[in-house]
From TrEMBL:
Alphabetic keyword roster: Allosteric enzyme, Carbohydrate metabolism, Glycosyltransferase, Pyridoxal phosphate, Transferase
Annotated organism of origin: Kribbella alba
Function noted in UniProt: Phosphorylase is an important allosteric enzyme in carbohydrate metabolism. Enzymes from different sources differ in their regulatory mechanisms and in their natural substrates. However, all known phosphorylases share catalytic and structural properties.
Protein name: glycogen phosphorylase
Gene3D superfamilies in alphabetical order: Glycogen Phosphorylase B (3.40.50.2000)
Keyword Transferase: yes
Domain of life of the native organism: Bacteria
Length: 868
């Protein structure tokens, strides 16, 4: 008979082995090989058969073996050392504590998914893996972070293929009792019941959630779970699966993540005494409702909406990962009205103000939708993209929010993603190349590489290639059995791939812009590369299409059908169910990492970073991080045919460029001798020079120094008595009301001469009318530099010019100097911007005044005494 419910029963460890429980319950084991060695010593065969899952290991190890270990003095000493090492890791001062003081009390980091380990399947792809690496690196650096997400009872789907090569999805139940997590319990009475958070829904319904804690080194990850008896059946399903369900279902998930997440943080801090967050980091728009909940909290303390908004904004950071508008969550306005009505959300936050936060009230915007990314930007005083190129794309994509500014002035900066080396670098590579990654110290990390011979590196890569091939053969065998093949038909699987052949990897999500099948544009050309008699290549491919993406599934099927061809199936394979467990042997086992997105639609992309740290060379379109850090010693750039509107022609051009690079550059260099010196030279250069740049510790340091510390400073200034927030809100209201009267009346240069020459310094004067504002409210800025054919100033130099004289009617003359520091077409202009010490950017209000006519043929009504 089928059980009506399942749960896991954990073993009672003998007292000498209680340290095993300590190790299991801190996910540091996921990136700490020495702790994994302790688990393997419990039962090596069981450790492998459970896929490296310590909870399953301890649940399945025979009691007799535990009793044996409890009397094994060598094992107990090893266990004692491992526990002591973990204790030191979570308590000793690290990079953050070594800074002068603690510039941030605590940061709450919200994300819809977290990829920590394959044992905790709460991720779908790059966003979740990035969030997991962010938490791990914060732990390594000692940054006081609290992660906030949801616990999905079915996680993301498990991918398989049917006989026709079509993607199949399966959603196995995730049993929290079988995971290395624990419930947050209130402890205020003898029942020690689980702590609950509650979100009110329309119609008087309530959505309750318990809070699970995954301890990620020093960082607690709070995961809200609605599958509890306190909920009605519909509400129990809110956290059923990642990125599934109807539009309203997604809205409920994001309400629980944002609103419920803030409440979970408050509960956790109250119970544990953890420092309350000064900074809230919204990783993509999914968690954006956290800002509205913080406004509601402040309104409950008596603050008006505008003041509460300034307090919330000052301490909020928003990171966008989306390079295209189609990737943003947008909800019907009517749904937002229902879920944030006064009856549902309370009286302190007017629904019209909430709707305004997510309104697409700009040119070509859709007034019928509520845009989560737009809300995220409006609720955060600081925002960033995830690579330099993505920062440019984001400033262009969201420029409508700042219509008075050029895209280059839009206040969205960039912090390029990084990857957590201890998680992704193979142990063999780590032993040869670097140390102290656990300290988050990139300096000197790769010095060991200088002591390693070319032959050692080459042999190590071959060992890792063989390990990856062994893992791939097992997975391909299991996939074919699942597709209906019999064992008698699968003898060929034992000889697929070759540890002495140039191995390329391609693994990522399968939206159309990542172009999984670009390599198939000319199938015969690809076959020739795969089957070359002297310099063959082999390719291992993996990736999942979203369950609702029929186009992505067709791409996978096209790739699978090509790889099924008996002529080439020993050289190219598609491996289903791409996840952390598949990725960890794949990156070290590849020699080249292939990436061919449509530029500029790859926000960052981190898989190539992980491969590089493992001594693989990149072969990629210059998009995302590769555009920023490309060096011909790190690999090869596929020329982009960006600008060609015919997509088929563009794909053909880029595919044939890819074939040429492989045939004429990559393969010859790989096969250049028994130990190809030039290849090894590039490998060394990649690890030593690129390695420090792609580390997640570098990324988190950037967040701390450039965003978290300034946000904490703003938060303290606005939060201490709220007077700063009240003054800032009142100032913004006054400036917005008066801005239509602000104008630049006239601009002139002095000392230009008949023939302007390089190095000349000229004077600039600007006559400005301020209406109801004062000079203290504004900054007058001169911009100058080279101009293009449309007289647009490219890469302008900005100089604030000073108040020189005041006239009647609140008119003023400002003066300064410009240096003619470049030859060729040169231009200048002047603009007036709001100025306040609490603004994070001059563009924060979206207001600017510039000369109405750039040619300025006449000077209207100049003040007496002005020289013209």
């Amino acid at each position: 008979m089928r059980a009506i419910r399942r749960f896991s029963v954990r073993p009672v460890l003998p007292e000498p082995l209680t340290g095993l429980g300590t190790l299991v319950n801190n996910l540091r084991w996921a990136w700490h090989p020495e702790t994994q060695d302790v688990f393997e010593a419990v039962d090596a065969q069981l450790w492998r058969s459970t896929g490296g899952d310590p909870v399953r290991l301890l649940a399945e190890v025979p009691a007799a073996r535990l009793d044996e270990l409890a009397n094994d003095h060598a094992f107990l000493r090893r266990l004692e050392l491992a526990v002591a090492d973990l204790t030191g890791y979570v308590t000793d001062d690290r990079w953050f504590q070594s800074e002068a003081g603690t510039p941030v009390n605590s940061v709450a980091y919200f994300s819809p998914e977290f990829g920590i380990t394959h044992v905790l399947p709460q991720y779908s792809g790059g966003l979740g893996i990035l969030a997991g690496d962010h938490l791990k690196a914060a732990s390594d650096l000692g940054v006081p972070l609290i992660g906030v997400g949801l616990l999905y009872r079915h996680g993301y789907f498990v991918q398989s293929l049917n006989s026709e090569g079509w993607q199949q999805e399966r959603y196995p139940l995730v049993d929290p009792d079988g995971l290395p997590i624990s419930l947050l319990r209130d402890g205020r009475d003898s029942s020690n019941a689980p702590a609950l958070v509650t979100v009110t829904l329309p119609g008087g319904r309530e959505l309750h959630a318990q809070v699970w804690i995954a301890q990620v080194g020093r960082v607690p990850l709070l995961m809200l779970d609605s599958d509890i008896e306190e909920n009605e059946p519909a509400e129990r399903e809110v956290t059923d699966r990642l990125y599934g369900g109807t539009t309203e279902h997604r809205l409920l998930q994001e309400l629980l993540l944002g609103v419920g997440g803030v409440r979970a943080v408050r509960t956790y801090c109250r119970i544990t005494g953890h420092a309350a967050p000064e900074v809230f980091h919204t990783n993509e728009g999914h968690a954006g409702f956290l800002g509205i909940e913080r406004i509601r909290e402040l309104a409950a303390e008596g603050l008006d909406f505008d003041t509460a908004l300034e307090v919330a904004r000052g301490g909020t950071v928003f990171t966008t990962h989306t390079p295209v508008p189609a990737g943003i969550d947008r909800f019907p306005v009517e749904l937002i009205q229902q879920h944030f009505s006064p009856d549902t959300f309370g009286e302190g936050v007017p629904i019209d103000r909430i709707l305004a936060l997510g309104a697409e009230d700009f040119e070509n915007g859709d007034p019928s939708v509520f845009n989560m990314a737009i809300m995220g930007l409006r609720l955060a005083q600081r925002a960033n993209g995830v690579s330099k190129l993505h920062g440019v794309v984001s400033r262009g994509m969201f420029a409508g929010l700042w219509p008075s500014f050029d895209p280059s002035d839009v206040p969205i900066t960039s912090i390029t993603n990084g990857v957590h080396a201890p998680t992704w670098v193979a142990r063999e590579i780590a032993g040869l190349t670097y140390a102290n990654a656990d300290q988050g110290d990139s300096e000197g990390m790769f010095e060991g590489l200088d002591k390693t011979t070319d032959a050692q590196l080459w042999e190590t890569k071959r060992i890792l290639r063989q390990r990856f091939i062994d893992d791939t053969r097992r997975r391909v065998h299991d996939s074919w059995v699942n597709r209906g093949a019999s064992e008698a038909e699968l003898g060929w699987v034992d000889s697929i791939l070759d540890p002495d052949v140039l191995t390329m990897g391609f693994a990522r999500r399968v939206p159309s812009y990542k172009r999984l099948t670009l390599m198939l544009r000319d199938p015969e050309r690809l076959k020739a590369l795969l089957l070359h008699p002297y310099r063959p290549i082999q390719i291992v491919i993996a990736g999942k299409a979203h369950p609702a993406d029929e186009g992505g599934k067709k791409l996978i099927q096209e790739m699978v059908r090509f790889a099924d061809d008996p002529e080439v199936r020993h050289r190219i394979v598609f491996v289903p169910d791409y996840d952390i467990a598949l990725a960890q042997p794949m990156y070290p086992g590849c020699d080249v990492w292939l990436n061919n997105p449509l530029r500029p639609y790859e926000a960052c992309g981190t898989s190539g970073m992980k491969a590089a740290l493992n001594g693989a060379l990149n072969l990629s379109i210059r998009d995302g991080w590769w555009d920023e850090w490309y060096d011909d010693e790190f690999g090869w750039a596929i020329p982009s045919a960006e600008g060609i509107e015919d997509t088929d022609r563009r794909d053909d051009l880029e595919a044939h460029a890819l074939y040429d690079i492989i045939e004429k550059q990559v393969a010859p260099r790989f096969y250049d001798g028994d130990v190809p010196g030039r290849w090894i030279e590039m490998l060394r250069h990649t690890i030593k020079e690129l390695g420090p740049k792609v580390l997640a510790t570098r990324m988190v340091r950037d967040y701390v120094e450039r965003l978290y510390v300034p946000a904490a400073h703003s938060s303290r200034q606005l939060n201490s008595t709220f007077e700063g927030a009240r003054e800032l809100a009142a100032w913004k209201k006054r400036v917005r009301a008066a801005w239509p009267q602000v104008r630049v009346d006239h601009v002139e240069l002095q000392g230009l001469g008949d023939v302007p020459q390089l190095g000349t310094t000229v004077g600039i004067r600007a006559y400005v009318s301020l209406g109801e504002l004062t000079p203290a409210d504004i900054d007058v800025e001169a911009l100058h530099g080279r101009v293009d054919s449309n007289d647009e100033i490219t890469d302008p130099v900005r100089v604030s010019i000073s108040l020189a004289e005041t006239y009647e009617g609140n008119r003023h003359r400002y003066e300064g100097e410009l240096k003619l520091d470049r030859t060729g077409p040169f231009g200048y202009t002047v603009r007036v911007l709001p100025k306040h010490p609490m603004l994070a950017s001059p563009a924060e209000l979206g207001l600017a005044a510039a000369p109405s006519d750039p040619d300025d043929p006449e000077t209207p009504d100049l003040p007496a005494g002005s020289e013209f």
